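thought: user wants a sequence for this fold. calling inverse folding tool.
action: design(structure=
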């Protein structure tokens, strides 16, 4: 768990050595709970990446995210809180601490670790004081200054997490990396491309729905019809771009990603539709899998 942008998805992808969670420089990228499975020679770890939790969450969407995060926390055998070295412990981080179980370091219950990420961005002497502050704020089992991007201390952190797991049989076959259906991942890949190619208010107004997924079209191709929902017509115009140029770029990049995922050529048929205020519409939220 951690506030948006501290690098949770980056760390997850590094742990899994492949791209499961989507990563971007914009907050609110990971909207729903997401599971990555890492099978090591002597352990299997299932990662739940919680969505960001916002202060003063007001919209239905934001409330749903808080709920999803709480559920993920309650289910975990081990918790890892993430902060970022440049910012130190912000008020938002402190808010999140309140979601952690209350107890002493030796106490029974779920071990809670801390990772201070992005240490590649700060001088070393700025990190020690943060470790001290962290210790005063919460009895973490162990604290790790890491860089999810460059890999500093990531192996050590992973070992600590693996060692603190309860013993049990593996839940998934060793070859499986995620329990997310390929379609959901395709949906996320399209949304990721929209995030990369658009700015300001458009990214947060976007949802993607796979409407049709047909295999074996004209040889081995997969036909995928997807709709990108935006909240306003002005956003639809931006997203389509001049003579469809932007949508084409989004489509081309997303198609490549889906082909890698599906291991087959894909024909991606991409549409943009306006669904006014879908983030506040319970019916729309359910259709889009957020309800
Ligand atoms: P999330 O919202 O917590 O999942 O954060 P992301 O994983 O999407 O990362 C947010 C941004 O921080 C992205 O632009 C990442 O490339 C960047 N980032 C993540 N980890 C590191 C790191 O260790 N060092 C640096 N310099 N940047 C990082």
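)
observation: tool returned 291 residues.
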């Amino acid at each position: 768990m951690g506030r948006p942008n501290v690098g949770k998805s980056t760390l997850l992808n590094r742990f899994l050595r492949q791209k499961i969670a989507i990563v971007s420089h914009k907050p609110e990228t990971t909207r729903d709970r997401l599971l990555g499975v890492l099978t090591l020679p002597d352990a299997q770890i299932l990662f739940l990446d919680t969505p960001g939790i916002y202060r003063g969450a007001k919209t239905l969407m934001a409330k749903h995210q808080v709920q999803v995060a709480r559920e993920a926390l309650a289910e975990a055998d081990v918790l890892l809180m993430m902060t970022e070295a440049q910012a130190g412990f912000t008020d938002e981080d402190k808010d999140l601490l309140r979601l952690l179980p209350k107890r002493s370091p030796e106490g029974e219950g779920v071990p809670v670790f801390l990772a201070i990420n992005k240490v590649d961005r700060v001088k070393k002497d700025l990190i020690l004081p943060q470790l001290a502050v962290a210790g005063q704020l919460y009895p973490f089992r162990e604290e790790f200054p890491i860089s999810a991007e460059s890999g500093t201390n990531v192996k050590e952190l992973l070992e600590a997490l693996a060692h603190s797991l309860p013993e049990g049989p593996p839940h998934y076959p060793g070859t499986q990396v995620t329990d997310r259906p390929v379609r959901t991942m395709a949906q996320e890949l399209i949304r990721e491309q929209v995030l990369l190619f658009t700015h300001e208010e458009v990214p947060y107004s976007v949802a993607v729905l796979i409407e049709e997924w047909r295999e074996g079209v004209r040889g081995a191709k997969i036909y995928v019809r997807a709709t990108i929902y935006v909240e306003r017509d002005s956003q639809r115009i931006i997203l389509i771009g001049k003579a469809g140029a932007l949508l084409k770029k989004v489509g081309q990049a997303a198609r490549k990603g889906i082909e890698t995922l599906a291991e087959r050529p894909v024909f991606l048929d991409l549409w943009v539709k306006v669904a006014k205020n879908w983030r506040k519409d319970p019916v729309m939220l359910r259709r889009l899998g957020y309800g």
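thought: summarizing for user.
answer: Here is the designed sequence. Residues 113 and 142 are 5 Å apart (CA to CA).
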